[in-house]
Amino acid sequence: MTKLISRRRVLAGATNVVGASTLLLSRPLCGLAQTPKPITVGFIYAATRNDFGWNQAHAVAAKRIAQLPGVKLIEQERVPETVEVERVMESMIQLDGAKVVFPTSFGYWPFIQKIAPKYPDVLFVHAGGLWKDTDPKNTIGYRGYMEEPHYLCGIAAGMMSKTGKLGFLGSKPLYFIFNNCNGFVMGARSVRPDATCQVVITGDWDNPVKEAETVNSLVDQGVDVIVANVDSPKVAVETAERRGIMSCGYHTDLSTLAPNGFLTGAEWNWAKGGDFVQAWQTGAAYPNLFRGGFRQNMVAISPFGNKVPKNVQESVLAARQGFIDDTLKLYKGPLKDNKGNQVLAAGQEIANTDNPFKLSVKWLVEGAIGSTGLQ
Amino acid sequence: MTGTFDLGWWGVLLAVVAGAIRVSTPYLLVSLGETLTEKSGRVNLGLEGTLVLGAMSAFATCYLSGSPWLGMLAAGVAGSALGLLHAAICNLPRVNDIAVGIALFIFGIGLAFFLGKPFIEPRAAMLPALPLGNWSDNPAIRSAFAISPMFFVGIALAITLEWGLKNTRWGLILRIAGESADAARAIGLSVNRIRTLATMAGGFLSGLGGGFLSLYYPGNWNEGLSSGQGLMAIALVIFARWSPLRCLYASLLFGGTSAIGPAVQTVGISEGYYLFYAAPYVLTLGLLIYSSSPTRTLAGAPSELSISR
Amino acid sequence: MPARARGPVSVARHAWPVRQRGISTDALESLLLSLIAMAAAGVLFGGFLAVQGHDALAVYRTLYLGAFGTRFSIESTLTQAAPLLLTALCTLIPARVGLLVIGGEGAVVLGGLGATLAGVALGGAPEVVGTVMTIAAGALAGGLWIATAGALKHFRGVNETISTLLLNYIAIALLNHLVSGPIRDFSQTLKAQSWSIPKGFMIGNIPHLSVHWGLIIGLLVCGGLHLLLRHTTLGFAMDILGGNRRAAQLTGLPIGRLILLACFLGGAAAGLAGAIEIVAVHGAASESLVVGLGYAGILVAFLARQNALAVVLVAMVLGGISASGGLLQRRFDIPHAATTVLQGLIFLCVLASGTFRGRLLPRRGAQ
Prior knowledge:
The complex is a heterotrimer of chains A (375), B (309) and C (367). Chain A is built from 11 helices and 15 strands. Chain A is an alpha/beta fold. A 7-stranded mixed sheet of chain A has the order 12-10-9-8-6-7-15, sandwiched between helices. A 6-stranded parallel sheet of chain A has the order 2-1-3-4-5-11, with helices on both faces. In chain A, strands 13-14 form a two-stranded antiparallel sheet. In chain A, helix 5 (147-160) packs parallel to helix 6 and helix 7 runs parallel beside helix 8. Chain B contains 13 helices and 2 strands. A two-stranded antiparallel ribbon of chain B has the order 1-2. Mean pLDDT of chain B is 88; it is low at 1-5. Chain B is mainly α and 309 residues long. In chain B, 69% of the residues lie in helices and 1% in strands. In chain C, helix 4 crosses helix 5 (104-121), helix 5 (104-121) packs across helix 11 (255-282) and helix 12 crosses helix 13. Chain C has 367 residues and is mainly alpha-helical. Residues 1-22 of chain C have low confidence and may be disordered. Chains in contact: A-B, A-C, B-C. Chains B and C meet through helix 4, helix 10, helix 12 and helix 13 of B and helix 1, helix 6, helix 7, helix 12 and helix 14 of C.
């Protein structure tokens, strides 16, 4: 019970980070000619930072940021979403001289809002994308549209599944989990209209026994591809592999965990944080709110598993190109929820950047078996 | 995957039965260990710490040596080491065993997390399962009946202990120490020595329970691995009224109810899942209320036991 | 030499010896023993670190810096200690009547839930009234929760340690259920949390100090409780019951009422801690209530032995260790769990030191 229940999600696989750092270097920065002034950057994690999940993704991004000129990295993990994180941020600022702080868990946000005005010379970067006009200008919210890579996972799953039954393991009843689930189901049904997806909400960010038990139950129901939206999908992916079914990853590259059954995975690309650090270092402008999908390079997919044939890879990559070109919309009519209500009429489209619509999602699309427990 | 049938509600039943077997094993091992300890008149409330340290030791040893069975041995040894520490402190006069248990709970978890940090990312070899379902073509059935040998070890232990506590010399010695320390001393037994051995044996079994978690199911080492199995197993001992055989039934029941939540959601029932997940705790509390009595101690409770008074 | 414990001796008697000798000698001895035990734990922990290749002295210097070294560190320590002052009482008060309650975690949750619901329901009430009622509702909810365990013990003989353990899990499930749907604020997108209490009901920081008012409330409650337990008939009656149930029966004490009251007060203290988390920190109920405050309180209660005033000191020490844990991570790359190991060692050493009680200091008169 020293276990702290916490929220954390996000991950950047090594591949993304490499890609993003190239991006950083390719961009001309005004201050790059002279030596950048030294800056201390603090990362705060809700749980252990080598968890094959959300925290590790940020830790990987942190390591890349530490390699930027003049940056000194300090890290602290297992910080609960209580007044304690406030103290930790202030401690990094007061005792270690941190000038940029990355509190990486969602629930840290109210504490950031509270102390940011006290330290105008410090930049607070939060992985949540919650920033509003009334919030302090020295705070940034950023976040990726994770439903887009889930749509691609769904395409791979739909094409590879033999039974047409997929499984989605969710942690908490939150809007982005539902969007991810919807993306996964719609992706699968775009290539296999009769595909169904059983949805199980475990209720915990981190409960390995429950996750393994859920995967086993899904397999017993005939499900042959799963994706797990929990803090660390490692257990779910490994259990799926042991049961001989296929799996998609989440947060980070999990392909090594399931050499036989891994298809691809939905990954974050948090390396954007490096841009903000450099902007703060050089006095350049920075956005206060940055959201994006493939088009904005905030999300990515994992390398394909060994068993994924060329035609499947091509379909997935074509859809990714669709997101990049903005020719493919995630939510488009005709669309029904899984209770038969019409959500979008034929011809109706929701822009991929329409965040208010996504925030309002409390339903699952047709083909998903289960409910959000809301409405 | 061509042999998969649509099992529907039969799938739920199968998942619950298979889940009961998978989930129950750590509960069974820990509760048998605690039964032994409590029969000698001591309570070790720190078995959660023992379990977690056992899980870490098993995983680390298996990762470094490549042998899951060596890992299980390491888990047992680490568990008995914590048991010895518990016993050594409790052997001092006027030290409360429950408090020492809580301290060990904290200490064991701290130690496991501290030393286990480098082992969160690597993968280790897993304990093999016995493929008892090969008679069936159905992969769900085959998998449900791929059962860990540790489960059968647990059953064998439960039966042996049930019989041994009643019918053997050491069983009698253990029970005397648990029923009346004075009587034990009067016939020349060293109560502290008996209790030390019983606590170490209990620690050994709890360590194995942890090893099962990290090397078989769910088969992983991380800081969230145990969701309180070691604590709940202590409740199960009281629930089973200190009978090893009833520990077996209680563990299976608890494992089965734990499996209901995920299983019913897979057929589309997803309202109130948190309440489903609380089912095992509510059930245990309900049965305790039903089986307890204000006028007598629970039948089977060792008289020396602080927790049964 | 005290006689070796023989035959049935209650938990309470064992863990919480009723004072038999002069208070001053006892108190001095307790303090000395605890200090020696903590020093021993410090040496053991230092050895543990040295084996890991760390410079133990440098670690201790940093530990001091992070806990008490600067004004900022002291504020951090006080912030960490504030909730522990109250959650410790959830174990401490029932222990006075011989019960071992470990349900602080669940009572904190219930307290937080009760406070939130009351605060939301009272929206529009005058601010002071609202704050007071909100906090009181939290204490009431926590109190009733643990009193349930007391009632089960008294009327059904259900072991209170086990029932409070189970009640923790049930409370957390209840919280998760409620904030995931029935009382959920859907405008909060990244976290399942309840409706918020009115802003005006929130209590802020103590003036000139980055510590919220919960600290003062905790200190007052500990002080008041000390008076109640040490200097009133009620406290004396509880001690009799805790020390010897038979004696309590013979003297005709209302055992059931004492048990229920002790459990209620303990639960109310933890519920108060949960309520303060709501009115001083979160403003709404969520999983952030479940961060181990209740479990840490058990540790504080045991280390403070039976003394409500000692709770204050122990909470400061443990709060300081927690507060400096982050600095250890950052400066030495020592895992977070190091502070857990240190706390476990202190706990073990203090318990072991209990065996020397009554033997360390010479006493006047026969003993």
